[in-house]
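Worked Example 4.2. Consider the chain below.
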Amino acid sequence: MTAPGSPEMLQVQQVPEPTLQSETEVLVRLKAAGVNPIDTKLRQRGTFYPEQMPAILGCDGAGVIEAIGSGVQNFQVGDRVYFAMVGWAGITAPMLSLPP
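Applying the procedure from the previous section yields the following structure tokens:
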């Protein structure tokens, strides 16, 4: 999203491949993503961090860990996980492993 507005203003765009930015991060290859009610509100009203536009909406996902930072202890590459990212609020929810 580049600006608040109706659903029609959303555009598909290419973004750079993400990389780990800290020793406590994990990189997840998404297999499924969900649209949460907060995503529609942010699209309509704008994000909490307008200086960080464009923004990628979406809080919930599931996938497979592809990389881990050196400080990650409870996860490893190949783990299937699901998560709720609430970075828009300045916090990150815990990630949970799925059974094999």
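The CA atoms of residues 18 and 27 lie 8 Å apart. DSSP finds one helix and four strands in the chain. Compare this with Example 4.1 before moving on.
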